[in-house]
Each structure stands twice: as C-alpha cells, then as structure tokens.
Amino acid sequence: MNKTKLIDALSEETTFSKKDIARVLDSLVRVIERCLKKGEKVSITGFGSFWISERSARKGINPATKQKINIPSVTVPKFKAGKNLREVVRKVQF
Fold it and tell me: Residue 19 is inside which H or E element, if any?
C-alpha cells in the first residue's frame, strides 16, 4: 500500500476528506522526524516505537573489487512493532 492508497483507505474509514487525511499524515511524519532528530523516542501504544541508533564503524569488503574498506559509523532510524501489531501479523497466512 502506498501513501495515496493509505489516504484513500483512511478517508473511507473516517468521515474526513482525503485532503485533511493527507495533511494529518504529512504532519505525523514531520513530527516523528523532528522528534527523532532531537534524539527522542516516539511510542504509539499498540503500534510500535521509533528511535535512533548508531551503527558503529566497521571493516567491510567491496563486493565488486574484494578490496577491504572502512565503513564509517552512521545514525539510523529503528522501529519495533508493538504487541498488538505483532499479534495481528502473526495471524497472517501466506
């Protein structure tokens, strides 16, 4: 599901217009980004938590040349699904 389909689904589920849903969704993403940028953790009960983590520097190998390279440390976003989301996903059959 992409952003457009998510907006359509939320609009059908609620009485809000697609324009209002898009504005709220964009605001939600901006708020989460702003909090993560400050180093804050964002928790949505039942859904999950977002936080940032630092991957330490390490040695690697360039797969094309097989040459050893140094990979610098990097800050990355992380997400852990909440209990309710994990339970819903466990029941999915493929």
Answer: helix 18-37
